[in-house]
Specification:
heterodimer, A: 313 residues, alpha+beta, six-stranded mixed β-sheet, two-stranded antiparallel sheet, 14 strands, 37% helix, globular, B: 378 residues, mainly beta, four-stranded antiparallel β-sheet, 1 helix
Amino acid sequence: MLAVALAAVSGGFAYFLPAAMTAYQATGQVVKIASPSPAQLLFTPTPTSSTNPAATGDFTVLLLGSDDDSKFVADHVLTQSMILVRIRPAAKTVTMLSIPRDLYVPLSTGGTGKIDGAYSYGGAGAAIATVEQDFGVHVDDYIWVGLLGLIKVIDAIGGIDVVTSNPVLDDFYPQDVFSNSPYGYERIAVLPGPQHLDGVHAMQYVRSRHGDLESDFGRSQRQQQVLLAIRQKAKQLAPEDIPAIAAAIGGELKTSISVSRVTEMLPLASSFDNPDSIQQIVLLPPYTHGGGPGTSVIANWSLILPLVHRYFP
Amino acid sequence: MISRVLLAVGLSVLMLVTGVTSYLVLDGRQSKVAAPPSKPTAATPRAHALVLPGTLYLAQSGALYSFSSGRFHQLTAEAGWSQPTSTPDGNNLLAVKNGGYFSDVYQLNRYGTPTRQLTSNAGRLGMRDPSSNHWSLYPRLSPDGGTLWMTYDGGKCSGCLLISFDIWAMPVNGGMSKAHAWTNTNLVPGGDVQAIPVSGGIIYTQYSYDDQGRPTGQLWYTNRANSVGRALTTQAEDCRNPALSNDGTQIAMICTYVKQVSYLTIASWNGSTLGPRQTLITDQMVAQPTWAPDGSGIAYLAPGVADGPFQLWWLPKDAYAPPPPSPTPVPTPTPGGPHNGPLPSPSPTVVPPPPVIKPIEVTTNDGFDATSPMAWLA
């Protein structure tokens, strides 16, 4: 009997082994965050009790999304998407703040530049340190997803339902996914309204910014819609789905969150059912304005910092 | 000795079978959320397939399908077809064919055979000059069949990044050179989309930013070229997908209130304004409402299960316009002599509540294109 039971367990072990290996490789990433010099700080830090996640259970995650196609060298990619997420389990509220990728800021690695370059200069640690020093927030963990990873995850969960808020048209959409000419272009038209999106079309919806007067800001709003749709769909998954999803993700996801913490957070994710409990913030003008060096966006810190500190300690 | 060997072999086989079975059982317990939709064949299996009046045309995976007498028929190959609409005489269809980086409007017979190409949007240089290519979408014909209304990105300049749609009109026999813009969006996010001809003009959806910088959909009416006309809904309602009832007195639409929700809403239409809104469906992500040609209900697309592919649904008219209750019977005096004794007190007539009419899921795993309006012929 013991042998048969062991065999059954072995079968289960074999089933979940690839997922466990992927999880082991992707989670618990150690990041080195350099302490910013006082001269670099844009704010005066004030200690708050809520910065200790253990005290309240609240925590902040920095979501990073990158184009990691063949145009880029691995681990030296720009972060096209940077979203600060504050999760308050007790209050069952989530706040999402999209940071414009073109925001011109002091970088933790030295000098100034667009904030999307921090990751390419120093990995997740540099991206986190830059956000912490410029926005005066504490980041508990990060999650990085590559371009292909997002497409594969959405396909692995069977697509997502989204109300696409407007037609997204782009005559110069990068032809760098599933293509031999990564510097080429293609024309896309994501039509408006409620619809079921597969990975490729969801990526087109969140990635295009040429046909939007609000450029990166409009894109940030779309990214938040898709993230929430993924979360909504993920609530229907069974534990047995994990290996297929892990296989899809491959090396396209990295996070500092440990496997055990992920396990703790899964029930939490399904408890946020009220759409009104999810606050979405995009730093539109007057919080930012164009005209910075190299088509960058200039921050109006006197408006941004009070807004950010209202939601993020 | 032999028995020990046999025992070891037997146990090994048993362990192998148990391990493999355990693996397969777990594999079989995966949820079906990622299962691909199947091709439409028949209405949801039931004792009697749901039969809707007339013939409904809709799109899945780049193919056009008709649905009549409870069964689907594939009309075209999976070759980028979508957005069917009928000609006013009901003898032909118009539909859009996506060519990859452009799309054109074709006329097809009712069996799905293309008979004529109405637009020509492929640029001469292909993707060497992306801006020379165009999208023609959401075709509709005027009641006299002489004008093609379409959503078209014809107002862009070569090499420009900001592109938006406008509503264009084209003489059916005139070709693209005779097409002209009816609206000019001035490059709001997406522009003007999905026009439907109504008496004296068109109703279309305009996408613009609200005062908080959020893109919203709004129904507008215009009766002359180069005039945006007037708004029929507010930006806060965030409405789209308009559909005119066959008697021309009601509009069905999808309103999303700048959220990830989708409400099927109808309102009366007097030729210039919309009446009070009546919200019919609030618990599904509804798209593309379409009135039955005989006025017996509304078909629409919505997921069969939460967050799944879009299925065909049917909402009978009784759900939103129930028949008036039958009059309460009034007791009539019984002929006869004078009554002796106390009069019986009349017992109140118990009127049973009207039955709740719920939408009917016509298909369960077909995954229709929710951005493609449906056409419905008698």
